[in-house]
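thought: user wants a sequence for this fold. calling inverse folding tool.
action: design(structure=
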């Protein structure tokens, strides 16, 4: 039994700590093949955007080093994941295949089909909960349906038992055994930009990998969470956790984050702001859970309006030049331009500013939210299928739990409230207030009225 090979199929769980699939493989006692498949060919699986591909290269590099530290190798293959996992099983004679669950429809179909075919051949195939605190099918309304509004979802989740505690790294109690097989060279995947190399700002801002994730969490607990309520909406402040890309790639688990924040809250019970900051941050973590809840129950969230009346909305026909002005931060609206330039330079954008830039595109320019979602998918290092789509539909007003369409973020008012001294704007738009800076591409007041008139046609 101990000589039976186990394949651990890594996906969006690029870590060794609190990795249930790897933990189970270590307990089995035989040789382990750690496999990652770059699947950009399977039907329904959305290829990663450029910024995510950059991050993936760094994350796989870090995972390979982590695995070497516990005596394992990382095997890389590219192509259809269903085909390649079967090939690796046949190549190694593996008796077990373990993985952690995914929640997109196409991914679930792949996993279910593979699990069924492996079991039909007498191979043990198991999947585990690793990337969400609660499985989407375990949080249902009193009528047995899924939650469409966040607040009751949040109440239902927080009423459940405390999330399980994280699992330790394997290999501490007994050495692990690797099974070596042929692997692709990561550099041959060409995940990194070359001509031009637009990733300088990403390299300066981020350190992909589990170590970088835990460093960010530690720094946030030391310096950010106690002031989170007061400072999270101010983009010039370094008050947010910066954990979203690490969570997206599974370099740290939500269980690790949850319990670390809870420990901080209990240890600093007498510190002003600690309890409120921890609660506010954990609420954001549950918003991420809500996104996966909706993705599971309503897979079309990524491409279709959740409120069908928006299928009749009269979107404006904007030119390519106008869209480029928004993408490149040349709209003449300083806070919008600062956000879009931050996104291009660093691969992220402050959450408050994300709402402003999205509202400007969808409501002041009346461009379909899917156009903005696609741009964010390509440029965000934390481009997450569930959260990206939900957040865009929230701003657009097309989701079931959404900002009302008439709630239009005025960029000038937002700047006066949250960037009062212009620090954030000047950081990314140093030419603001000078002749080279463009005039506003639309009048905010008149474009707001036009958006409301357009909305009235579908009410």
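)
observation: tool returned 459 residues.
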């Amino acid at each position: 039994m101990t000589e039976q090979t186990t394949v651990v199929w890594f996906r969006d769980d690029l870590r060794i700590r609190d990795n249930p699939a790897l933990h189970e493989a270590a307990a089995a006692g035989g040789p382990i093949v750690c496999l990652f498949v770059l699947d950009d060919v399977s039907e329904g699986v959305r290829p990663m955007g450029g910024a995510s591909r950059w991050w993936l290269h760094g994350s796989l590099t870090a995972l390979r080093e982590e695995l070497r530290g516990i005596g394992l190798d990382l095997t890389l293959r590219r192509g259809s994941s269903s085909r390649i996992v079967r090939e690796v099983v046949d190549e190694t004679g593996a008796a077990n295949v373990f993985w952690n669950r995914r929640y997109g429809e196409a991914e679930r179909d792949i996993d279910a089909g593979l699990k069924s075919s492996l079991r039909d051949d007498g191979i043990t195939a198991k999947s585990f909960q690793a990337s969400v605190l609660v499985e989407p099918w375990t949080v249902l309304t009193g009528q047995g349906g899924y939650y469409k509004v966040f607040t009751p979802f949040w109440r239902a989740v927080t009423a459940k038992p405390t999330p399980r505690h994280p699992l330790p790294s394997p290999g501490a109690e007994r050495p692990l055994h690797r099974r070596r097989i042929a692997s692709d060279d990561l550099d041959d995947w060409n995940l990194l930009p070359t001509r031009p190399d637009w990733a300088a700002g990403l390299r300066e801002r981020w350190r992909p990998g589990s170590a970088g994730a835990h460093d960010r969490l530690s720094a946030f607990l030391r310096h950010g969470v106690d002031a989170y309520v007061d400072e999270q909406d101010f983009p010039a402040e370094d008050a947010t956790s910066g954990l979203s890309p690490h969570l997206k790639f599974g370099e740290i688990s939500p269980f690790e984050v949850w319990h670390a924040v809870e420990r901080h809250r209990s240890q600093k019970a007498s510190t002003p702001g600690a309890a409120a900051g921890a609660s506010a941050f954990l609420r954001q973590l549950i918003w991420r859970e809500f996104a996966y809840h909706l993705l599971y129950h309503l897979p079309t969230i990524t491409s279709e309006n959740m409120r069908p009346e928006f299928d009749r909305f009269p979107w404006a026909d904007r030119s390519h030049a106008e869209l480029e002005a928004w993408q490149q931060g040349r709209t003449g609206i300083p806070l919008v331009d600062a956000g879009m330039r931050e996104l291009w330079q660093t691969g992220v954008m402050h959450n408050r500013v994300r709402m402003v830039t999205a509202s400007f595109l969808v409501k002041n320019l009346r461009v379909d939210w899917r156009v903005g979602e696609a741009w964010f998918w390509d440029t965000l290092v934390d481009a997450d299928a569930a959260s990206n789509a939900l957040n865009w539909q929230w701003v657009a007003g097309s989701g079931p739990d959404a900002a009302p369409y008439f709630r239009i973020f005025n960029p000038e008012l937002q700047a006066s409230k949250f960037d009062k001294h212009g620090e954030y704007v000047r950081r990314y738009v140093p030419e603001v207030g000078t002749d080279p800076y463009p005039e506003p591409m639309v009048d905010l007041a008149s474009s707001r009225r036009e958006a409301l008139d357009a909305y009235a046609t579908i009410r």
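thought: summarizing for user.
answer: Here is the designed sequence. The mean pLDDT is 95.
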